[in-house]
Amino acid sequence: MRTVGIIGLGHVGVTTAYTMVTKGLADTLILIDQDGERAQAEHLDLADAQGGLATYTKLLVNDYDALKTADVVIFAAGDISQVGAGGNRNGETVSTKKAIDDVAPKLQASGFAGVLIDISNPCDVAVNYWQQKLGWAKHRILGTGTGLDTYRMRRAVAETLNVNVADVRGYNLGEHGASQFTAWSTVYVNSTPISAFAGIDYDQLAETSREGGFAIFKSKHYTNYGIATIACDMASAVLSDARRVFPCACWDDAQQISIGHLATVGATGIIDNPTLVLPEDEQAKYQASADTIKHNLATMNSFD
Amino acid sequence: MRTVGIIGLGHVGVTTAYTMVTKGLADTLILIDQDGERAQAEHLDLADAQGGLATYTKLLVNDYDALKTADVVIFAAGDISQVGAGGNRNGETVSTKKAIDDVAPKLQASGFAGVLIDISNPCDVAVNYWQQKLGWAKHRILGTGTGLDTYRMRRAVAETLNVNVADVRGYNLGEHGASQFTAWSTVYVNSTPISAFAGIDYDQLAETSREGGFAIFKSKHYTNYGIATIACDMASAVLSDARRVFPCACWDDAQQISIGHLATVGATGIIDNPTLVLPEDEQAKYQASADTIKHNLATMNSFD
Amino acid sequence: MRTVGIIGLGHVGVTTAYTMVTKGLADTLILIDQDGERAQAEHLDLADAQGGLATYTKLLVNDYDALKTADVVIFAAGDISQVGAGGNRNGETVSTKKAIDDVAPKLQASGFAGVLIDISNPCDVAVNYWQQKLGWAKHRILGTGTGLDTYRMRRAVAETLNVNVADVRGYNLGEHGASQFTAWSTVYVNSTPISAFAGIDYDQLAETSREGGFAIFKSKHYTNYGIATIACDMASAVLSDARRVFPCACWDDAQQISIGHLATVGATGIIDNPTLVLPEDEQAKYQASADTIKHNLATMNSFD
Amino acid sequence: MRTVGIIGLGHVGVTTAYTMVTKGLADTLILIDQDGERAQAEHLDLADAQGGLATYTKLLVNDYDALKTADVVIFAAGDISQVGAGGNRNGETVSTKKAIDDVAPKLQASGFAGVLIDISNPCDVAVNYWQQKLGWAKHRILGTGTGLDTYRMRRAVAETLNVNVADVRGYNLGEHGASQFTAWSTVYVNSTPISAFAGIDYDQLAETSREGGFAIFKSKHYTNYGIATIACDMASAVLSDARRVFPCACWDDAQQISIGHLATVGATGIIDNPTLVLPEDEQAKYQASADTIKHNLATMNSFD
């Protein structure tokens, strides 16, 4: 049975739960939030939503013990109000650290033996911090990272070239934050490299994917739909051992840090990391992004 | 092509949009909100969510003209902050009236010739008010009404008897509000009338479905998942001409008012209203609920 | 992970496999057939079908060892050519017995610890024979039985009353064969008993559901779509522990035989059998059907 | 409403119908076959399959008039028994021509104004013959062509490199027959050109995709699952105006023949043909394949 825990029932966590329920992506869903009444309220709303479905998802609430047999835990706790006016995800560094410090021992104690997917920001730093805290095999912990930025970049390219997003391939890499970059060398539209298309404003497109979240955030004060679908896509790859490739926040042995790069996602988490041969300028951006994450991780570690 | 307009992109409207996008229930979705930046932000978030889907939904923003060829318009504008501390949906009477007054001429002008599904509260009153305002054939305008309360009642019965909600049938009727009632004479579990089960606390169960929304509302300040799925189920019945039966807020010729009762939903809206022979006590509750709606409609009409 | 084995890749078995692949109902599918080339060919065709899917199903071929961790095995081996000109499913008694005799020890040896769902005909007799052969707890073995006839009856009622099949409830019970019957006392349309509708030709409708397969069989020489969907529905109820109620061929302790009656299907197979209080004439038909199955089981046992 | 006609209810046509019904891809399905009893039998089997679905598809049988408002017609008539022992699809040239000669005037008379998707073989020749016969704007007629071979090539590459088929891109082009070729210059795995992977046996892989159907055909005597899914994918692109890119059998203005090459598929059929810059050897293969189709079209035209 596909068992998924979701810790943190803010907009992102509960939208992820709703997506799993309505699309039949999980058989048991364990909903966890420090606010017990909120968890119970979301549980009722999700239960109501099952009235017309052909699939069934068992819903449990605030039951850490049930995580023992879970395949995936999605960590979505966070405090979006900490994001700065400029949309800097590092604003959440302190609140996310506190949430991880609170949850990590409970997760450890539950006997959970599956794959942890972190959504909480700053995502790459959080993944590294989880890895420090839990000491598990690195492949068991990953973050949605630039998976979402990648969907945003593809959407922006699709709009520009008037094609379907499904026909655009390629990746955003590095930090799920300001230091990320679109690896244009990896972007293809119908197997034609994007460099073959005239009149592309690369800076504008990269900006759109990097800042896409903040365009939404400014008016809505959070984003939830894009991120929930990428989280569901990664979780589903674990649950069905699909061995699908995503740009995930995960361990890079060469950099000795977890950072957004290509990863094959399957039953045990990160199965392997496909090689991408990047041109020098993209390599440099990747290196700079890794340095940024290291610096931000040190900052997170410096807080008590 | 299945074309759906959603007017009002609060939690309910946009969750309905997200459900349609992720489940591939519409081919074109026209997102309309008086806050243009918000509409644009939700559009971007929903567009991001299409990055991993096998289906495709075209998204248009604030384009009333596009409603000309729409099959369904879902009206979800409202001001949840107007709901009283006790959870009385009539608190929205003024704000919903204003929203309808604002939207009705635009909808009329668009040339929209499809089916209007009202979610906004007070739902029954709103349906009646829409019918007054637009003067369309009655079958073209319906509300989700006690469809949601019905899902809640089934969920409550399912939990009590430890069965799957799909195996519970029966309906909540009347006002989507305090005067509604569970028509227990219509409730069956695996084709066995609920009266055959021992130890049922009917008042408690009816309370759960009637007040289910407020249990959620108290902690979350709105409900969106249950209502979005019932709205999608009704819209899908129109889009595929499924002729499925729901308890909808729609015209009751005997009562000369729109009120929640059984309706066959298909391409032209309400196809017909299947007869339910209710026992006297349930008939009396229905009559009382109709009177309540008439009274509340008069109240809505009395505001300028 | 949801792991399903399908043994017997004739039209029914492979259509069941295809449904699971295209709807994402299983994570691993183990395809087994005595004709290894055929199994390989179906495997390739199903693998090709995954080229455009958002879900992933791992396909294994003729790997009995893999059944050790399977949740469900669907047995669909049979020799449709043995069905008589009149469409008598007992024509398959000898061929199905041989197939079970062949497969049972392999299934036993595999260490399979899940739920066995028999589709092969004569279905009720086959379930009983499996139970004799394997000696497992009775709840682990069930057959699709009158589940399909129930769908056919509902379809026939829906067509007659011009309603959606989803709004018709009620069951066909007894043998998945000539002695079955529609339990009209259980049939409701929108919570109204069918007896309240005028002009129903019950004999004609019962005939349609009982003989529905043969109307198809006569021209097509097999039926596969209805049966594949009911098999998938039952398997999904096991995989998600949905505790949904179906009329299944399963053990009736009072009759000391497996026969089609209501059953709650969940992770361990038959969770319980909801009580249905039938009127005397329907009870008599059920008894007669049980006697028929006992007689036919004796016949199956009499063959070497 | 999404309305689809399927003409020819052999294994391929009816599997396509079943996929549309179970996945909710069409709202109305018009099933047409010269064998009226067979059409009725398939209709019943498909209707039975709707007993447990959350979606609804209206089924009509042998109703050419209903095609007047259809969005898509899928032509799947053919006589698989005419395929030679070596699996040559040209064996069907005579029978397919006769089927088109029979159906074309009826389709014309129906007033059908949508998009025709030909599955029948020899697919490219059939598309050209349809275009001659009907005289419609070229963009309204296309064939599944090398869409299926493309899925097969991707599957073969995925198996060889142990990756998910969804992460393999690239196309088979030319005739859906022996003269087709894999355009290796278009094949990428996770945005890395296949030429960067060591130890690839290109001839073997190309052979697998070209001859993939016959590996299945040899044992099963037909293939249906892969082809049904690609047909559904193309039909869905029309129905939702998805503007997705497939290698389709469609008009190539430079070659003055319909042949498998990239096409953007949307509401009006072929929206445009994205440019692929192929290396010389692949261009030569494309030219040779175009010549083959021209020759085979002349052959088809030479029969009475």
Structural account:
The first copy, chain A, has two domains: 3-143, 3-Layer(aba) Sandwich (Rossmann fold); 147-302, Alpha-Beta Complex (L-2-Hydroxyisocaproate Dehydrogenase, Chain A, domain 2). In chain A, 42% of the residues lie in helices and 21% in strands. Chain A has helices at 11-23, 36-48, 93-110, 123-134, 147-161, 202-220, 225-239, 280-302, and strands spanning 3-7, 28-32, 58-61, 72-75, 115-118, 141-143, 168-173, 181-189, 192-193, 244-252, 257-266, 269-272. In chain A, strand 5, helix 4 (123-134) and strand 6 (141-143) form a beta-alpha-beta unit. In chain A, helix 3 packs parallel to helix 4, helix 4 crosses helix 8 (280-302) and helix 5 (147-161) crosses helix 6. The model of chain A has no long low-confidence stretch (mean pLDDT 94). Chains in contact: A-B, A-C, A-D, B-C, B-D, C-D. At the C-D interface, helix 1, helix 2, helix 5, helix 6 and helix 7 of C face helix 1, helix 2, helix 5, helix 6 and helix 7 of D. Chains A, B, C, D: Keywords: NAD, Oxidoreductase.
